[in-house]
Design brief:
Elements (H helix, E strand, L loop, with lengths): L23 E8 L8 H20 L3 H19 L4 E7 L2 E4 L2 E4 L3 E9 L2 E8 L6 E5 L5 H8 L13 H12 L7
Antiparallel strand pairs: 1-2, 2-3, 3-4, 5-6, 6-7
Helix pairs in contact: 1-2
Amino acid sequence: MPPEDQESPKVTGNFTSARHEVHTLLTWSAPGRPFEKKGREYFANIFIILLAVLVILFLFSQYMLMLLAIAVVFMTYALNTVPPHNFHYKISTEGVMVEDHFFIWQELYDFYFKKIHGSEVLHLRTKSYFPGELTIVLGEMTKDHVKSVLLPYLPYREYVKPTSLEKAGDWLGKTFPLDKAT
């Protein structure tokens, strides 16, 4: 216990000048994920594939896998019929904010752009395993403008080698299209 006749040190002065100011560099609103409305043929093809898979799984008495297949098809249906709501994105001198989640620059690794369903999408890779990558739809924002804002903070990758899973998905999509052949 400190002696009673000594006063505890008091902090005086304005310490906000010791830190650098946080400035918002860019803000915009855009859908939370790339979205493309699917037609009736797409869902009919998925349903036919589901029936074939369910018959095979039933013959091998794999009831839990049958439930899993139904759940995956339901999730696919939900994601392709319900449009995403708009998210608010903000890039500041401290990092990137997506809705209520803030990622400081030290948590981010690099960035690149990709076109998905006709929408330009910013991919921010993180250093940690989870979430691994942030996908941000640019909406009305231009790719060059976002790139010029991010370059002082993160390295830009013009090309990111696709993983084997992405290659397999692209091959399946091209070989067995579920939509009308265009």
